[in-house]
Amino acid sequence: MGEALLRARFAARGVAAHVTSAGTLPWGGAATGNADVVMRERGLDLDGHHSRGLTRDMVADADLVLGMTREHVWRVAGLSADALERAFLVGELARLGPVVGERDAAGGESVRAWALRVARSRPDGPIGRMGDEVADPMGEPLHVYRDTADRLDRDLAVIARLLFP
Questions:
Q1: Low-confidence stretches of the chain (pLDDT beneath 50)
Q2: CATH number for position 78
């Protein structure tokens, strides 16, 4: 759902960014029925989605990596030494990003450089806060998927605005 929502947020801003998703669990398959229903309710299509596992190359190539839970971010960090400079919980980036400010696209600031700026604003201690985490709705009823999509969309709207002002 996060991939589809972020793509839609970027498209609404006229941005053709490369957005992809991968999981930290070894599960391959199409989106769940509830995820498909919730995205269709929002006018988004998950028909082409097929889950895949996160790899070291994906992390190395990414300018920004977003996870839903701290465990996701820790797994990303385990794949690349410099990953914590550009890996965030969705909620964490939506919280810290506005404090740091928008990416200076007009001044040539890259997404990676902006992510590093945000990462340097993190307080010492564990990555993110409990409230920054978004639980995976897998196996939950439809209303939980809707709540998850609402939360992701709200946070991703903030992130899209900061990345592409």
A1: none
A2: 3.40.50.2300
Range of the domain at 51: 2-163
The CA–CA distances, whole Å, from 106 to 19, 109, 163 equal 22, 7, 11
pLDDT, residue 90, reads 97
Tokens of residue 80, six digits:
């690349």
Query: Could you tell me if 146 and 135 are in contact, meaning their C-beta atoms sit under 8 angstroms apart?
Result: no
> How many CB atoms sit inside 10 A of residue 116's CB?
16
- Closest-CA residue to 55 (of 28, 22, 11, 12): 22
Taking only the tens place, the pLDDT of each residue in 13-55 is: 999 899 988 877 666 666 777 888 999 999 998 887 767 778 8
How many domains does the chain contain in total?
Answer: 1
Report whether 147 contacts 96 (CB < 8 A).
no
Residue 98 backbone zone (phi > 0: left; psi -120 to 50: alpha; other: beta):
alpha
Contact 59, 79 (CB under 8 A): yes
Q: How far apart are CA 136 and CA 119, in angstroms?
A: 24
